[in-house]
Each structure stands twice: as C-alpha cells, then as structure tokens.
Write a structure and sequence with these properties.
The chain has a single domain, classed as Phosphatase 2c, domain 1. Helix content is about 30%, strand content about 25%. The strands form two sheets. Strands 2, 3, 4, 5, 6 and 9 form a six-stranded antiparallel β-sheet that branches. The protein has a five-stranded antiparallel β-sheet with strand order 1-11-10-7-8.
Length: about 240
C-alpha cells in the first residue's frame, strides 16, 4: 500500500484541517478532518478527532465496520467533552472521513462533507455522501451540483463530529484492485473541482506526493478560499 497526504492553509488565516496516514501490522488507515468553530477551536476539534481515531483503531474490534463505528463515536465523545471544558471551545466540531483497507477491499466512514473517492484507473466515483444543506437540496433535485458550488448556504453542515450526543456515521465497504486509488479530501478541494478533473490528475499516477501537490495547486488556481487537504492511497497489490 502506498500513501501520500498534504494540507494547505490557502487564503485562510489558519489551517483547521488535519489528516492521518497510519500503518500498523494489522491496519492501513487514512483519514481527513475539517474543523469548525471559533478561534483555534476548529483546529483543536479536527486534531482531537484524528488522534482519537488513531488510538481507537489500534484496539481490537470484531470487524472493520465495528472499528470505524467505535472510533467515530469516541471522536465525537472526545470533541464534545473538550467543547464543554471552556467558553472558547463551545460549539466546535469537525468533519471526518476515514478508510481502513487491505489489498482486496476498503471500508470507509464519514460524517460531514469531507469526501472519499475511488478511482479505478478509468472512472472516479464518490463513495461517501455529504451531510450538508446543499447536498440535501441536490438529492431532492431542488438545485444542481453546479449550483451547489455557489449556494450561499453551501458551508452549512447537517452532521458533524461534536454536534450532538449520539453520532451515526455512514459506513461503506467496497472492493478495489491493484492500481486503484482512494482520494480523501476536505471541501477546499471538492468544493471547486469535480470528480472528472480529479481523475485527470490520477491517470497514470506514479508519484502520489506530486499528485497531491498538483491537486492542491489546481484548487487554488480555481479560486478555493478554504483550507485544502488531500490524501491518496494506492493499492499496490500487497500489504507488506
């Protein structure tokens, strides 16, 4: 398995995104989190969420689905506890998308509008579903995906780590094959780029680090005003 990740502050004054690339003897895990809240609170929420995910996934679980469900619940608990500890942290939260994988399949989970895409060498497919106000409008055919990119309420998240006591993460398990690539990103990327353009940067990709750089540079050129984080994982046919 090959990994790469990169995050860029962009036009914001601080970077509230965080990401993780983790490899243990039993697990390959990648994740992206995009923080929300007042001064520094979003950065703390995303950092705490990623660290809690890391610790929880290293424990024993009956299945990958159970592991991710438990990890997201623990991250939610940790962020809510931190948010209640001080006035400055009140109301903070974050998105979270993660994938646990081997050479045959990957199991992904998400809360919020950070995304995971699967690129099979020809076609790119968004696996996760956004938990956002505009995503719901698109699902109801009230607005188009293009209109969603400029909608005045496009930043309104309907589900987030830390937003409520009990959290339900969406979980997906999919097959993939050697040469396939997973792309995880915050909305600083997918808010300005469509899947087809992302796929053009992954076609015949032999340098994941450079692909991350080029994707971020392209998002900036397209006018992204948010923090931008990209994580790539390539199935190289083995787990050693």
């Amino acid at each position: 398995m090959k990994f790469a990740g990169r995050t860029e502050t962009g036009l914001r004054s601080q970077n509230e995104d965080n990401y993780m690339l983790m490899h243990t003897e039993a697990l390959y895990v990648v994740a992206v989190s995009d923080g929300m809240g007042g001064h520094l609170a979003g950065e703390i929420a995303s950092s705490l969420s990623i660290e809690t995910l890391r610790k929880t996934l290293q424990q024993q679980h009956p299945s990958r689905e159970a592991a991710l469900s438990s990890a997201f619940a623990e991250a939610n608990r940790a962020v809510r506890q931190k948010a209640s500890s001080s006035e400055e942290m009140y109301g903070m939260g974050c998105t979270l998308v993660a994938a646990v994988m081997d050479e045959r399949e990957f199991t992904a989970a998400n809360v919020g509008d950070s995304r995971l895409y699967h690129f099979d060498g020809e076609t790119i497919r968004q696996i996760t579903h956004d938990h956002s106000f505009v995503a719901e409008l698109v699902r109801r055919n009230i607005i188009t995906p293009e209109e969603a990119k400029t909608h005045p309420r496009r930043n309104l998240i309907t589900r987030a780590i830390g937003s409520e006591d009990r959290l339900s993460a969406d979980i997906f398990t999919c097959e993939w094959k050697p040469g396939d690539i997973l792309l995880l990103c915050s909305d600083g990327l997918c808010g300005v780029m469509n899947g087809e353009e992302m796929a053009s940067f992954l076609q015949n990709c032999d340098d994941l680090d450079m692909a991350c750089v080029k994707l971020i540079d392209r998002a900036l050129a397209l006018g992204s005003r948010d923090n931008i984080t990209v994580v790539l994982a390539m199935n190289d046919g083995g787990i050693a």
